[in-house]
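Subject line: Sequence and fold of a protein, written as structure tokens
Body of memo: The sequence and its backbone structure tokens, given next.
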Amino acid sequence: MAEWWRAGEGRALLTLHVQPGAKKTEVAGLYGDALKIRLAAPPVDGKANATLISFVADRLGLAKSAVHLKSGQTSRRKVLEVSAPPPDGEKRLLANA
């Protein structure tokens, strides 16, 4: 199991390094102990955070309500909490990275 994906007790914590303002939203690979995600949304008025939650939920096949920003509201380093993650969630996020 990767350092950025910590699963247990019906939830997973994801450590992410986010790069807002990119040309397209995509997983960019690993960045230290975090998964790097480029976001097409600008870092203004919570748009990047909303795009991040939507992107992660979509990749995991979950509703947006299952993904919560636990920490890093205004930081590039964020921790997301995912309720009832799929068993192959780590692979789903890394697909096409």
